[in-house]
Every structure is written in structure tokens, then in C-alpha cells.
């Protein structure tokens, strides 16, 4: 495997160096190789002859160093002997997290698809001379307790001690994993004052104070606090010159060094609670007193009273709530509102919590608001304690208007309360039989009536069509009758009259058309419909009529003709 | 044939005899109401109901009697029942409103769409009989106009469209009637008649499993019935099981 990596590296090197057009080169440099633990240094990766930003995987160095700032990017372009030379830099500010000889391992640098490797760099980190950390400048964390119960307060104060002039550049707070935190002191401006520490005078400044409440029952760790500060140092080893005069000191002889100060990681031991934990324990640790009060001891029915429960004391007041408790059933209870007040400028978190319940009695009489109890743990005496209120007696009087309820009514309902129900009905009603189903008939009639209306035009249509269709048949049936009745009253010209009657009859009887009727057409049309003998005599009579009509000289017996015609018509009608 | 006539006569006389009895019970009940002996009045009125007769006025008086002796659950039941028979009776509505102010639980009905509200109140305002009467009369009017139209007796423009409009109106009325019919046959309502009652998650008594507690006069919908138990849903959607004895079915 190792062999394989080496050969791959060789291959990469060959590729890199044999690349003909641009002399691409990647170098990694640091600005110091011999440092103290509290020092910071600059790590720079410089790439020449490239035109894209490099990508660097920095994770391999993180186990020996931590990043203070960076990466920052820089691009340089310069002209040397008419040739353009461009380089891109990536710069980190690092601080060592161990002492000894540390190595910045070979890092992978990527430009697009090309990969380069930097050379590893060794850095010697020493514990540091007295001057830099423990002597002239250091950061302390003062923890008031190292063993606490869950929920008990720990106060941590961070202070910075210095003999030299410093300015704080950045302050990184630890994350306080596993703690509920309440910030006690966080100054906007850091103020130094002089103290004497073991005979040495220091400038000391409190930079942060926090109250921590463990939320877990396993041991917890306080992460280190990190402070980055600029220290003014006198430069040494300079050659004497004419400027080396106290007068110029202010200009030249100071230089600033950035230092990273951090505290040690500290373990906090969490003790377990002693036996006898109350069942309704809700997490209160500290020392508390609890009182309850009511705004009125006697109240009218349906009027609201306010029960306020007041908790006072020091401890983790924002981490627990009141245990649930039972109100008498005759009370309507609205969910409580709570207000928390904390007293500032106290190192122990102290304050008060106020819960307000609105109660509305719905029954008359006397009743007792029960005692409210809050079990808590008192860490100083290592004992479970119970804070409780005294029960309160309340008298509920009947109100003026018995039913007037203060809440939940609309305007209309409030108005209704003052009036009474409408009075008894006197009139004897027409009883409805619950079991009868007699109403159906009425609707059956109504619906069938409606149905009939919808159907009636259709019936009317059918009737009308029928009338039209049977007109001829009816006429043919009536033909004989009308013919006979017309024959009874012969006018002067008998022949034309008889012929008219005859044609009319034939037309009606056999549904012939009136036009173009003459004896010959009658004969051809009626052949087969009328007996041969009758047809012959009919044609004969018609011919006689025609001749009589147009030749008045020929005198035939008129009476005879009419009786003959009547007989003939009766015969035809019978046989047809 | 003779026998049938006799039988019908006998039936008629018994019915009239029964109504006469109901009449006298009603009159007696009213006198008891005047004498402020409401409990006896209640028993007389309930007797009429037991005989199988009902009327909006009877429910009105029964509700009043229950109201006077402070049994608000039964009063709500009686007024609701009366409103079923005569939905537009203002007195019944008024008395029901007053009684509801004395009901302990105030159940907020969730807001619905305005149109749906209008439709519901429309449905509530008319009984099934009313709707069928209106619908059938509209249908008859439409039929008559149809006849006139098809015989071409009068020629008014848009006359056939008017006929169609009345027909559509009638169809809508019938649709609402059908909806009401299904609602009446499917959904049963009830009223709590016991002062305070527990609602359980299932048809069993368990003190540790009480879902919620309601008081008399609360109107509810019955989803299903089992022996001695009913599954109910309140107007705001809370569901649970209740012992049948605590509910009077509307």
C-alpha cells in the first residue's frame, strides 16, 4: 500500500515537473518554526503560475493545530524580465494545541482537476517561557464548585491577568454543552484594575461571568475559553542608530504580537440526589419560599377572583414549573399566567415567579382553595424540602342576578337572561298521530295531478292526429246519407243535380278526387270495387244525365230517374 | 263490504276517542301549569306523548314545565322536538334560547362557509312536509303553464323559459327535501338529560379513562348504538361513548 502511494506520488511529481508550458509550483510555508504554545503563526500555501483558486483540504492538520482565522486569499501578479508571473496565496493563522515537535502534514492542493502535494513542515512548540504565558499574561477561570447536583448553580468567572499593555481582539465563549446558562456579567468595555498576586502586581480584568445549571446527571466538561489579544512588545536586538533615542521610542521600538490565550478544559462532577425524592418533584434546586393570596375572600356567584401564587428564592427558577394541583370542582379555572423577575447584580440567580389563576365559582357556599406545594432540593443542607402555601377559604355568596355569568356570553344571551320564557299555550291542538303515515295520500294526489298536466298536451296531440287520419273514412260512411238527403229536394235541372250528387257521393265514398270526373274515368277507377252490373247502370245513368244536361229536348221521367239512382246508390253502398 | 265499513267506523271512533282523551289531558295539564304544580303537568304531558300524539304546542308546554322545575336538559329536548315539527315557531325558539343560557357547557360551533350556513338554516326552517308541499305545488304550476304553452293559447316571449325556471326551482326544492330526508333518517340527535355525565373512549366504565365531562342540556349527534351505550359526537367535533340512559333521543 505504502509502495503504491509512493509510486502515485512519484507519478504526480513527474507530471507536475514535466508540464511544459507553465511552471506551476505549490509551496507551503510558515512564518515561524520555533514557537511557544500560546503563540500563533501564519501558514501560507502559495501557488505560482495558476489562474484558478486552489482548493485545499485542511483537515489533516486539525489534530495538532487549531485555526484562529483564515483562510484568506490573495492574488499577486508581477512582471519579471518581460514575463508575467502570477501567484495565488491562501493564508491561515494557526495556533498549536500541543507541545513538542508537531508536523504540518503533506496537504493535497487541487486546481481544477490537477492535484499537488505540499511538503510537510515541522514546528517545534515549547511550553513557553515564563514571560509569555504564566508570567506576563494569562487567562484564568474561577469555578466556585467542582461538584454539584443537577440544577445547582455553578458560577464561572473568567479573568485576564497581565503585566503588559494588551488589547483584546476577539473573545470566543465556550459552548457550555449540558448546561442551562444565565449570563451574569459581560462587559462592553474591559476595565483593568491593579491587584497584587503573590507579591507581583498585575492588571486584572473580569471579562465574563456566567451561572451554569447542569441539566444532565452525568459528569460534564467545561470547554476552554479562548481570547485573542494583541500584545505590545519591545523589539530587541536592533542595531544602535541615531534613531535609538528615547525620543523616537514611541515611533519605532514597539511592535504588536497577537497571542491566543485559553483556559484548560475542566471537569465538573455531577452528584446524584440523595434518597427520598418526592414524587411530584419538578426540578427545583435552590432555596425557595412560596406564598399564595387571593384578591377577595368573599365573592358573588359567577364573579371572578384572582389567585396569585408567589415564589421567591434563589436557584434555577426558570427551569421548573409549579406542580399540577386540583381545584374544587365548583370552580371554573383559567390557565395561569406567569411572570418571572430576576434580580440583576447578584451572583446567585435570585428572583421571583408569579402565577395568576382566574377562578370563577359556579356554586354557592364555602370552599377551600387547597395548599400549593413545591418540593425542592436544598443543596447546602443536601436535603429535600417542601415549600407550601396555607389553604385559603373562600365564601361564595349568591349574586344579585343569579345567572349572570361574566364570561362566555354573547350580547344577545345577556339580554335574554333578564326575561322569562313565553307562557303556556292554551289552544287545543290538532294532534298529529306519531305512528300514522296518512300524509302520503295528499302528496300522491298532488304529484299525480302535476304528472297529468305534463302528459295532457301529449294526449291532446294524439287525439288531434287521430281526427285528421280518419276524416276520409267518416266521410265515406256519411256519403250515402248526404246523397239521399240532397236527392230529396231536386231543383229545376234534375239531370245536372243528379250527376252532381252522384259524383259527390262517389268522391266521398271511394275517396276520389273531384277533378276530371266523367263517366269513363269513373268506370275505369271503380272497376273491381263495385259489382259489374251496378257499375254498368251507374255509367248509364251518368251518361243519361250528361245527355239530358246538354240536350234538354230529350224528356225522361224525372221521378223514375231519382228512384233509380236511390236504389242504385243503396246497392253500391251495401256491396262496397 | 259491510264488515269493512264497520271496521273503519270503529277505527275512526277509537281514534276520536283517543284524541278526546289527549285533549282532556292537555287541558288538565294546562290547569296544573297555572297552579304552578309543574311536576304533575309534566307527567300529564308525557302521557299524551306516550299515547302517540304530538304537537308543537304540546312540546312547548312540556318544555316550559321542565324549565320551571329546573330540569333544563329535558326542557331543551322538548323545545328541540317542537321545533322539528314547527321550525318557524318564534316562541319555541325564544324559550330554547333562554334555556340554553342555563346550560353549563358552552360548545362553540366551528365556523363554516357562509353559503353552507344559509343552506343549513334554510333546511332547518322547513319540515319535510313543507318542502314536499312547496315542491309539488311548484310542479303543478309548471305543469299548467306547460299545457298552456304547448296548446299555443298565448304567445308571450320567453314563456317556455319561465316554465323551465319554475321546473328547475321545483327540482331544487325536491333536492333539499331529499337531503333533509336522508339527514332525518341517517342522523339521530339527542340531548343530555342527566346533570353531569362522563364520556368514555369506549363502551365501558373506567374512572381513569374519562375523556371529558358534559352537563345536561348539551345537544349531540348519535353515531351508533350498542346495548346501553351510544357513540356520540358533540357539535364541536369531540367524540366519545356515553351510557344510553343519559341521552334522550330527539
Task: Write a short abstract of this structure.
The complex is a heterodimer of chains A (576) and B (250). With 576 residues, chain A is of the alpha+beta class.
Radius of gyration of chain B: 23 Å
Shape of chain A: elongated
Choose one word for the global shape of chain B.
Answer: globular
End-to-end separation of chain B in angstroms reads 42 Å
Largest beta-sheet details of chain B: 5 strands, antiparallel
The gyration radius over C-alpha positions of chain A equals 63 Å
**What's the architecture of the largest domain in chain A, going by CATH?**
Sandwich
CATH architecture of the largest domain in chain B: Alpha Horseshoe
Query: Average pLDDT across residues of chain B?
Result: 84
Stretches of chain A where pLDDT is under 50 for at least 5 consecutive residues are 129-133, 402-408
Structural class of chain A: alpha+beta
Number of helical regions of chain A: 10
Largest interface: chains, residues each: A-B, 38 and 46 residues
Helix content of chain B: 55-70%
Low-confidence stretches of chain B: none
Distance between the termini of chain A: 130 Å
What amount of the residues of chain B lies in strands? 5-15%
Identify the strand order in the major beta sheet of chain B. Answer: 7-6-5-2-8
Q: Indicate the structural class of chain B.
A: alpha+beta
